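Pipeline run #58 for the internal structure catalog. This entry was flagged by the ingest filter as a single-chain record with no existing model, so it goes straight to prediction. Upstream metadata was stripped on purpose; only the residue string is passed forward. Reviewer on rotation: M.T. Logging verbosity set to normal.
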Amino acid sequence: MKYHGQPGRTGEAGFFLLEILVLAGILMASAGAFALYRQSAVLERENVLRVAAVYLGKQQLAELTALAQAGHLAPGQYPWLGDAMPCRDGMTFVVEAEVSRLKDIPGWRAFVSVSWPGETEMQRPGLVQLEREWYDGEEPMEAIAPAKQRTGI
């Protein structure tokens, strides 16, 4: 655009208002896309931790089942029974189990809780709870409660 306001002045006078509005729209869309990417990364990390917690809970239930089949299980609280520390994907989990006898049938019931702290202000602490019942002299039957995630462990 030629500037015609003052005599002797030629060339571009500046940006159009429309060009500045388009630039502002592009910048706002970029900032929104970055925020969406950050949120999706946080959710993906929470899902990875939840899956790792389910596997650790199942391993704890398998260890308890093996103790029951060997005749070494007693009612009470059990910490992590695995070989190594319950660490997955750079996170240390807390695995606890509560074991009790069934009332009317000779068998066992185990409740396993797997918890982990939140890593950042955007990630909440998590908790997964699993339950299993099995009967003396039978193969264990699995009943897993839906995975739950709570804040403020």
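catalog note: Helices lie at 17-70.
catalog note: The two ends are 64 Å apart (CA to CA).
status: ready for reviewer M.T.
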